[in-house]
Amino acid sequence: MTKLTALCVFCGSRIGEDPAHASEGEKLGQILAERGVRLVYGGGGIGMMAVVANAAIAAGGAVTGIIPEFLRAYEVGTVAGADEIVVQGMHERKAKMFEISDAFVVLPGGLGTLDESIEITTWKQLQQHNKPIIFVNTNGYWDPYFALIDRVIEGGFGHHKVRDLFQVVASVNEIFAAIDSAPAADSVVLTSHL
After folding, report:
1. Do the Cβ atoms of 35 and 3 come closer than 8 Å?
2. Which residue among 14, 150, 161, 194 is the one 20 to 30 A from 88 at the CA level?
3. Domain holding 172: CATH number?
């Protein structure tokens, strides 16, 4: 891919029960700042979102939070020092995240994180982009998700190369190597059944 300038991180508005998740999020924010890569995230000032954004800002990084107007009251808006883009709704938020990001990283999160990761992966399956998608599977958090994807394939609802639409790493330290080696989406994941 061309030079990575902005990386979108999908992650939870909660901190989660496993302290390793927040630790990895903090490391990711620091790494992004050190590499001069802008963090793009959901704009919340709480949970995993705040951990990553605050770490990036503390390390001198650039951060853009994209948040729907109706969530600002709940999620306290972006963290201090971040640029903020306020949008009308969730669909516009995801579209703007996609538009300004060169790659996507999925940290642990809840239903919103699932929604974002499934949608960006589906867009790649549909040949709408070829941007890398990396799941950080800290302590096996995403194992049930991968099992579901395998079930989709085993059940005949997806080509086996669907599994190649995203990469999986155990630690944020492996993200950039995974981005550099991410394969292009094979058109067979879209056309094999047509």
Report:
1. no
2. 14
3. 3.40.50.450
